[in-house]
Design brief:
Blueprint lengths: L3 H16 L8 H15 L10 E2 L3 E2 L1 H10 L9 H7 L1 E3 L9 E4 L8 E7 L2 E4 L8 E4 L3 H6 E6 L7
Antiparallel strand pairs: 1-2, 3-8, 4-5, 4-8, 5-6, 6-7
Length: 158
């Protein structure tokens, strides 16, 4: 056996171990959710417009989610109800930044969505006459209307 082979094998194994992602580095999903949150924060103050999904004209709640995640290379369904139906359900205690939060504004069905940013806060386009803003999930109004969170599935990636 060539005496250099064990040394070469050791060096190859050591270098291979260094090239993997460590547990402290953000994985692809974390990078994408950070990009979505960054996009949403950049449009704070944009007016609510029913059917809107553009910072120049305004946003409705689901349009803001579509816009924010598009900046992360993720395609979402257009309406809050379709987002609710197609995203993976997450219990409140497992929420993490980037998850979508779903609410019932009326008794019948999910009709509102926001983007969770951590610390019980979310970004959303609330209603006509208001602007994209940050709200607290522990606010009694939102707490009462909260249904569940949803996490983006990989199938939505471009």
């Amino acid at each position: 056996m060539n005496p250099a082979k064990p040394l070469i094998l050791f060096l190859l194994l050591a270098l291979t171990g260094c090239s993997g992602l460590s547990s402290t580095q953000p994985g692809p999903q974390q990078a994408e959710t950070k990009a979505a949150i960054r996009a949403a924060k950049q449009v704070l103050g944009t007016p609510y417009v029913y059917g809107g999904e553009d910072p120049d004209t305004g946003f409705d709640c689901s349009g803001l989610m579509v816009y924010s995640y598009a900046h992360a290379g993720v395609r979402l369904p257009r309406t809050a109800l379709l987002q609710f139906k197609q995203l993976r359900p997450i219990r409140a205690k497992y929420m993490r930044p980037g998850d979508l939060l779903f609410f019932r504004k009326n008794r019948s069905r999910v009709s509102h969505v926001g983007l969770y940013i951590g610390d019980m806060k979310f970004i959303h386009a609330p209603s006509r006459g208001r602007t994209v803003t940050i709200a607290r999930l522990d606010n009694p109004i939102w707490k009462k209307r909260f249904v569940r969170a949803g996490r983006v599935k990989k199938k939505f990636y471009f």
